[in-house]
Model the fold of this input.
Amino acid sequence: MGGTFDPIHHGHLVAAEEARWQFDLDRVVFAPTGRPWQKPVGVSPAEDRYLMTVIATASNPAFTVSRLEIDHEGPTYTVDTLRRLRAQQPGDIRLYFITGADAVLQILTWKEPDQVLAQAELIAATRPGFDLDSLVKQVPGAAGRVHRMEIPALAISSSDIRARVARGAPIQYLVPDGVARFIHKQGLYRTPAASDPLDVPNPPDSPSPSPPGRGIQ
Ligand code: ATP
Ligand code: MG
Done:
């Protein structure tokens, strides 16, 4: 399961555990991204995101965290990570990439989408009623390689959690307790990011002030 994990939250964990159970997986490997080329600005330090992922997954014996992407210099691509993961394992393994259904669309913009689908099958977490099938038809080579997985709750997002911290709203029950404590201890997300949801939206016809970014890593 790849992600920025800025921060990791219960949506990620529910999706991972449901995939483990539904697809009878031996292991779920969480791979926090190094410097995500889709979100290059304002992402928290890789080491903080890595530690939060370790804290969140520590209690599940099937969950592990990989440093593959964060230790990689330069931009990382999903297809390369999947190849490296495969190379690290002895023998032939069946590899799945767990993702939210919204992120399936991004496959179209990934490097070598056909190679991604050749390396791994996709498990797309979707809420009941989401029309994944019409999405899959747009991706060449996706038929039979993309599996729908319904999970009950998809409303939690990292961007919403960051915005909540910035305005002092509670994040308890949205993230594991240890992750909430780490966020407060490190002082993460205190400043709202330009790309994150704002506390009070501006009326559509008024010019919006640009809030300070969270800085470039
Ligand atoms: P952001 O709001 O910053 O985009 P995010 O909550 O989407 O963060 P990411 O780290 O970008 O988290 O997501 C990693 C993966 O987890 C993606 O495939 C995404 O679709 C999926 N995902 C995110 N939130 C959920 C959720 N609530 N339930 C299931 N999957 C999720
Ligand atoms: Mg996202």
Summary: The helical segments are 10-22, 46-57, 78-88, 101-104, 113-119, 132-137, 158-166, 177-186. The beta strands are 2-3, 28-32, 63-65, 96-100, 121-126, 146-150. The chain has eight helices and six strands.
